[in-house]
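Tip: read the tokens left to right.
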């Protein structure tokens, strides 16, 4: 099977799995991540099948979205075998999708990604910041009934993965301090670093305006 056909098959598989998501990780998000990965690939030359394949599949087995991520990873592996990817290619794609999430950066020994993985990670992180990122943060918080803002609840620092996943005392605004404001400094590639700067600044301006309006100062 040629590479273009393999990528189309992966896209169709991703659409089947993600099109009904209601947390801000639906197929619109997937498509934006893929488009950004293609943009970064114009400057960062690495295997397009691995990069685009992982971009399409990066949320399919995400442990915050599915009850049994190991089962979904097995399903992805069998699917990729069926479209004639090698074991080596499948292992790299699954390593990327398993390890690119922000939660993995909270471990004592964060995983090291290949250049292909860094491109996908940057693309996913860029979709978490800027105007799109603000919208997704509010949307996700609403799905999980998070408080919008409480000045008495301080943003959490030095979280473990378990603490990061615990949304019981999370607020949507604190999420900017706990994760989104950190992402600009975590980009891997020069392209992503350039794009992240403007998106980060837009979020800072938004939060400043939000707090001014909250306090009726504007």
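Filled-in amino acids:
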């Amino acid at each position: 099977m040629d590479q273009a056909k393999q990528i189309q098959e992966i896209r169709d598989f991703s659409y089947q799995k993600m099109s009904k998501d209601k947390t801000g990780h639906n197929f619109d998000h997937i498509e934006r991540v893929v488009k950004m990965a293609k943009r970064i690939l114009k400057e960062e030359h690495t295997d397009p099948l691995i990069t685009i394949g992982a971009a399409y599949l990066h949320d399919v087995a995400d442990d915050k979205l599915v009850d049994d991520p190991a089962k979904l990873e097995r399903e992805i592996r069998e699917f990729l075998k069926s479209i004639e990817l090698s074991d080596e290619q499948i292992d790299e794609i699954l390593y990327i999708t398993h390890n690119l999430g922000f939660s993995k950066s909270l471990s004592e020994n964060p995983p090291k990604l290949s250049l292909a993985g860094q491109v996908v990670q940057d693309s996913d992180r860029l979709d978490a910041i800027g105007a799109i990122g603000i919208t997704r943060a509010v949307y996700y918080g609403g799905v999980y009934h998070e408080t919008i803002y409480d000045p008495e609840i301080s943003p959490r620092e030095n979280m473990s993965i378990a603490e990061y996943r615990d949304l019981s005392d999370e607020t949507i605004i604190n999420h900017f301090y706990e994760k989104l404001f950190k992402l600009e400094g975590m980009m891997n590639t020069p392209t992503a670093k350039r794009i992240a700067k403007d998106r980060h600044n837009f979020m800072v301006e938004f939060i400043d305006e939000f707090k001014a309006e909250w306090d009726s100062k504007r």
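The chain has a mean pLDDT of 96. The chain has ten helices and no strands.
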